[in-house]
Design goal:
By secondary structure, the chain is α+β, with helices and mostly antiparallel strands. About 25% of the residues lie in helices and about 25% in strands. A hairpin with a 5-residue loop joins strand 1 and strand 2. The structure holds 2 DNA strands.
Length: about 230
Amino acid sequence: MPDTNTPPSGPRRWEMTVAEARTVQQTLRERLVVQPPPGFSPRLVAGADVSVERFKHYGYAAIVVIDLQTMEQVDEAGAAAELRFPYVPGYLSFRELPPLQRCWDALRVRPDLVVFDGHGYAHPRRFGLACHGGVLWDVPSIGCAKNPFIGTHAPVGEARGATAQIVHEGETVGKVVRTRAGAKPLYVSAGHRMDLPTAVDLVLRLAPRYRQPETTRLAHRRVNELRRADRGG
DNA sequence: GCGACAG
DNA sequence: ATCTTGTCGC
């Protein structure tokens, strides 16, 4: 019987079936906090991302931390690891969190917020990657995906800052956010210790110029460096 | 039953 | 996610 990845510490096992993973999601979901801490004003913001070699089961993960005031990087950690869970829509966290966990453990600073490259609350069981990671690490988090997953939404305005609600099963689970005019919008949802308005506000602050939040851009650049540097060596 | 389906 | 160059546009 697999461990349920009980936070905040203890042995965590990732060898499990999709059915078992679903049970883990439903169990951990009860720990999800849907409001940010009182007076939440993050300074250290982390971005997490994973890169996978095509047709391989090897992944390169990275977490990069920036100071929101200066937008400058203040810490970073990377890790290469075998991905022991397949990509199954709805269970992305079980594939990406193991290598990201190693990055998290290696960080020298404790971020006030983590932005994940994937959905959070906008998930079939309301427990996407950002929710799972946030609960495991007990840190406020945001899900910021490049593509839609669940729900429907009205057309998004063309101007930067325009948004549209993502509705699923009669509930607003996230928002489509235009971070840059002329670019595809982002799909934002709350993770742990977070709410939708705060998540949208932070994503726009983190992406003043480019489509993706600065945290995601840096993490993405880092994992690709790790992947390219590893082949041939 | 059929199609859809984060990275 | 990854395979991939140049090219159109602000």
